[in-house]
Amino acid sequence: MKAEALSRYPSGVGPGGITVDDIVQLRLQNTFDTHLDIARAMATVVRRDMALYDADSAQFTQSLGCWSGFHAQQMIKSVKRLRGTARGAYVYLSGWMVAGLRNRFGHLPDQSMHEKTAVADLIEEIYVSLRQADEVALNDLFRALKAARAAGDAEAEAEAIAAIDGFETHVVPIIADIDAGFGNEHATYLLAKELIKAGACCLQIENQVSDAKQCGHQDGKVTVPREDFIEKLRACRLAFEELGVTDGIVVARTDSLGAGLTQKIPVSQRPGDLAAEYTKWLRTEPVTEEKPLREGEVALWQGGQLVRPERLANGLFQFREGSGRARVIEDCIAFINDGGADLLWIETDTPNVTEIASIVSEIRKAAPGAKLAYNNSPSFNWTLNIRKQVRAEWLAEGRITADAYPDGNALMKAELDDSELGHEADARLARFQVDIAAQAGVFHNLITLPTFHLTAKSVDELAQGYFGADRMKAYVNTVQREEIRRGISAVKHQHEVGSDLGDSFKEMVAGERALKAGGHANTMNQFAAA
Known about the structure:
- With about 525 residues, the chain is an alpha/beta fold.
- Among the domains are: about 30-135 and about 170-250, Phosphoenolpyruvate-binding domains (TIM Barrel), CATH 3.20.20; about 265-320, no CATH class; about 450-490, no CATH class.
- The protein has 18 helices and 14 strands.
- Strands 12-6-4-3-2-1-14-13 form an 8-stranded parallel sheet. A 3-stranded mixed sheet has the order 5-7-11, with no helix packed on it. The protein has a 3-stranded antiparallel sheet with strand order 8-10-9, with no helix packed on it.
- A hairpin with a 2-residue loop joins strand 9 (about 300) and strand 10 (about 305-310).
- Helix 6 (about 115-150) runs antiparallel to helix 7 (about 155-165).
- The mean pLDDT is about 90.
């Protein structure tokens, strides 16, 4: 990059006195020309990570759901501070949080009532924030380079150049929730294109009915026939192909485990086709002389007899109780083999590694190599679920008697935190993602709504102290002192949003005439040690 600039300006100075070093800095700060370029680049990253996972299940990936660009930026900065790299860390964009927090209609439930454009807008915002994190970090490195050169410190100059050459972007893949497609297959395709142009390299879509969509952890879910859903998977794939994101990833989510209803009975063309495999699970009763068809009723020829599907007053048809697991397995096989899905998402009602692994084992008999994205959902009471699992296992093994620990919700008691059962449950929580990656084919572990809950908890903690007896002590103890001691760069909030970046640009164009914000009177200097 510098060589190219020098070939145009051999003296190191261009028109109007701009320098080659400044040109190089600004070019580095603008790695991606468009957010569509980001989608193309990040799709390649995910494909690389999938190959690494196939070779070693310990190489699974993770994400946290973020409802603002700032949340995503701070998450990735934290990961880089922890690991020295952001590799393996993604951003999850939750439709639930867009509905709940990022739409013009107020706080809404996860029922596809928010504007379609809000999802694309949030993707755009997240990538603007991540790219600005690059700009601020690179600016700091170039300022260090200029300072080293001004001081004649060759060693510090070499270190700054090495840091610039080895700089890793804060831009990471986004897995974007497109809900159930917000309409028919054409509507899905049109929205998919907008999400991809905003930067999404990975689209997650679910097999619910668009106009009756529910949160995956609520009741009343209605699924669509498999061939209908496959058409939406194709719509997403064609959107990727049209825009040149040939490595784009499609995540097919099935809600069948908790969905007992369907709006539509598909037409079967031959025994055993997708329609027949879907309708075989309907709850039916035989049509007989004693119970003949009535005016307006629907009947099916099934298993050599005429049967009447049970229909609710709202026109929806019911599936047989207990059929959810089998329907999930059939869904997943069809979504991979017929729909070309890259990853599966099985929405479950509890976090149970053994159960999910057994489902994946069945799927892989017909779709070898199937991989999952798994929702480590805040809708689960993790403490209660894992403690119940430990207690049940220990009882079955004869390790404890029934009176050793309470049953049910009493397992949540704080005094159990320091018990043997409490310690074992916490140990399982710590290794849950490792176990599910190794045993159940989970390539990507995500938490959908963590920043929703974290924001609520953190604001409550500060408000309780600040408006209570502690006042300023509450802010200092719960926020600022922790920022300083944890090395969180946002403690220098002016710098975090680009004040030094602005000073550098003013110097580029105005030199000594630059009116800068970062002088002696800037109170951010009090945080120099941070």
